[in-house]
Amino acid sequence: xxxVTLVNYTKRPLETITWAALISYWGEWSTESFExxxxxxxxxxxxxxxxxxxxxILEHATFTFSIEGCxxxxxxxxxxxxxxxxxxxxxxYIVLDEENVEETFVIPESIKKDRELYEKWKKxxxxxxxxxxxxxxxxxxxxxARFILPQAVKTKIIVTMNLRELKHFFGLRLCERAQWEIRExxxxxxxxxxxxxxxxxxxxxxxxxxxCIQFGYCPERDLMPxxxxxxxxxxxxxxxxxxx
Length: 244
Ligand SMILES: Cc1cc2nc3c(=O)[nH]c(=O)nc-3n(C[C@H](O)[C@H](O)[C@H](O)COP(=O)(O)OP(=O)(O)OC[C@H]3O[C@@H](n4cnc5c(N)ncnc54)[C@H](O)[C@@H]3O)c2cc1C
Hints:
Blueprint: E1 3-9, H1 13-25, H2 33-36, H3 39-51, E2 62-71, H4 72-78, E3 84-88, H5 101-104, H6 109-112, H7 115-137, H8 142-145, E4 154-162, H9 163-173, H10 180-194, H11 200-205, H12 211-215, H13 228-240
Antiparallel strand pairs: 1-2, 2-4, 3-4
Helix pairs in contact: 1-3
């Protein structure tokens, strides 16, 4: 199962964003005022300013997540989000030496539930690992041996996004239209943020959710199954209201 951890983020994230906004609106705010900005200031000003659509202030808080055990199918989609920084486990330097197919690859539930198909997948995957290892043993560098590995291979990736890009990312990837694995990663990222008292309020104020939450309607409603909007909203409310 994929593991997502919020490893680090801007110190006093909401205060930083609010302070940036206040600097832009009022002359009496200065560099020094950062130290005296209070929770009251945040609550008083931030929801209102975000309501104006002044979203560039969200760029002043960044969040670093570690994502472990997802497939390269998933990370390929993740890295399409360009306003972010990534560091991924290298297949040139790290030799895959796990024999167990389940430990090495992500196998979708749709395959697992068909017993016969699942056994065939595992057989091919085991052969893949074996051929990969044989290639290395015969002197092929892992940068070439890795060409045999399928997209299902598990990986680790570190991602840093600012809050504005996170909003965009969540809009697309928390949605039921997103592919299941990146959707799972996106929900876990949101859950990680929602656990922290110093982050949680911004999730509602900035509407850090799927696009149905952000827009108040579903832009793809013609393509969605009935009940999706209600189900997604309920799930989001549960996550946002939750503590660890
Ligand atoms: C359901 C779904 C299905 C998808 N299917 C496909 C598919 O079939 N094939 C495929 O190739 N991709 C597909 N994608 C990926 C999609 O096209 C985007 O590449 C991905 O979602 C990244 O989003 P983005 O480009 O909006 O934003 P990011 O890269 O996260 O950038 C954020 C925003 O910054 C701005 N921006 C960033 N770079 C530029 C730029 N160079 N010029 C102008 N503005 C910029 C844009 O406003 C952009 O929305 C799919 C995505 C989803 C969610």
